[in-house]
Amino acid sequence: MAGATATVMRERIKLPENRALQVVTVEWLSDDADGTCSKDLAAALGEDGLYGFLDCVKTVPGAQTPSADWDIALEDESNADLAGGGLADRSATAALIKQFADRPLLRGEVSMEISGAGNAKTGTVVLYILETE
């Protein structure tokens, strides 16, 4: 993918009762030819990848506004979307938060796949992951 990039940062916040919240922020730029961006979050974060329960995801369109109804998939090693399609059809203009009542489990290898964003578009995806210690 020519031009597609993603920067990944993680912050851990201690919570009561031996729990912690991982806040994983991904700033992305879609490919200038096909409007996609792919990032192996486990490799970017090192350690053992992502472990915990996905509580919610915030999406924020960037300065180079993505196309309407762009999509995100959080895929495991077998390419199953751990978000169950819940991150499809994101807004081109407004920040959105998707709460997951069933809190899907993220284990180890997880990649983020962005599609339909338009060529050379930008945005931010923030994952809030509850973990136990």
Set down the secondary structure blueprint.
Blueprint: E1 5-15, E2 19-29, E3 37-40, H1 41-45, E4 50-61, E5 71-75, E6 96-99, E7 105-108, E8 111-115, E9 122-132
Antiparallel strand pairs: 1-2, 2-9, 3-8, 4-6, 4-7, 4-9, 5-8
**Helical content band:** under 10%
CATH topology: Jelly Rolls
Structural class: mainly beta
In DSSP terms (H or I, runs of 4 or more residues), the helix count works out at 1
Tell me about this structure.
The structure is a single chain. This protein has 133 residues and is mostly beta strands. It has one domain: Jelly Rolls (Sandwich). Helix content is 4%, strand content 50%. It has one helix at residues 41-45, and strands spanning 5-15, 19-29, 37-40, 50-61, 71-75, 96-99, 105-108, 111-115, 122-132. The strands form two sheets. Strands 1, 2, 4, 6, 7 and 9 form a six-stranded antiparallel sheet that branches. It has a three-stranded antiparallel sheet with strand order 3-8-5. The longest helix is centred in the first third of the chain and has 5 residues, at 41-45. The model has no long low-confidence stretch (mean pLDDT 92).
